[in-house]
Amino acid sequence: MALKITDDCINCDVCEPVCPNQAIFQGIEIYQIHPSRCTECVGHFDQPQCVEVCPVHCIPLDLEHPETPEQLQEKYRRLTEEKTV
């Protein structure tokens, strides 16, 4: 499942640089996550890095984008292949 950033975001800028998939970007008011790029850090880390560094704990699972662990692994594979091309 992708993650999402809630309105509790304080724009502290710590989540965006730790995302290995460049899924996090500055939105109009708060940071946002591209669901098509978010793998919950599957393939990179044991835990989502944005969740680990967020001081206000505003990055839950995005229930609108359900994915199995296998789907997240496949997304990771596709994203890493894009980087090598």
Automatic annotation (TrEMBL):
It comes from the Bacteria. The keyword Plastid does not apply. Keywords: 4Fe-4S, Electron transport, Iron, Iron-sulfur, Metal-binding, Transport. It holds the Pfam family Fer4. Transmembrane segments: none annotated. Coiled coil: none annotated. NCBIfam families: di_4Fe-4S_YfhL. InterPro entries: 4Fe4S_Fe-S-bd (IPR017896), 4Fe4S_Fe_S_CS (IPR017900), PSI_iron-sulfur_center (IPR050157), YfhL-like (IPR047927). GO terms for molecular function: 4 iron, 4 sulfur cluster binding; metal ion binding. It comes from Panacagrimonas perspica. This is 4Fe-4S binding protein. Residues 1-29 form the 4Fe-4S ferredoxin-type domain. Its cofactor is [4Fe-4S] cluster.
